[in-house]
Write a structure and sequence with these properties.
Elements (H helix, E strand, L loop, with lengths): L2 H12 L4 H13 L5 H14 L4 H10 L8 H14 L1
Helix pairs in contact: 1-2, 1-3, 3-5
Length: 87
């Protein structure tokens, strides 16, 4: 496992993500090595925690929508805004 994947797994483990879930995201990072998924995950957790989602809800959201990690961050902000408005 390369350093980028190890750092991602450490971060997700610290957030309480299940092993099954963080291994899926580690595989996703391996497939998309040019992306900095740790940076994206950090921003997503910060943003989604800010709008009131729990770490468990964020975990389910990421696992069910892994392609979000490939979107421009301004699109993620729009998604967070909509999620916040629909509560």
């Amino acid at each position: 496992m390369n350093k980028k994947v190890e750092d991602l797994v450490d971060f997700l483990f610290d957030k309480g993500m299940s092993q099954k879930s963080y291994l899926k995201l580690a595989d996703w990072q391996e497939l998309h090595s040019s992306y900095d998924m740790l940076n994206y995950c950090t921003k997503i957790y910060d943003l989604f925690n800010y709008i009131g989602l729990t770490n468990d809800q964020i975990e389910r959201f990421l696992i069910n929508n892994k392609r979000i990690l490939l979107m421009p961050f301004n699109e993620i902000v729009k998604i967070a805004y909509v999620l916040h408005k629909v509560n």
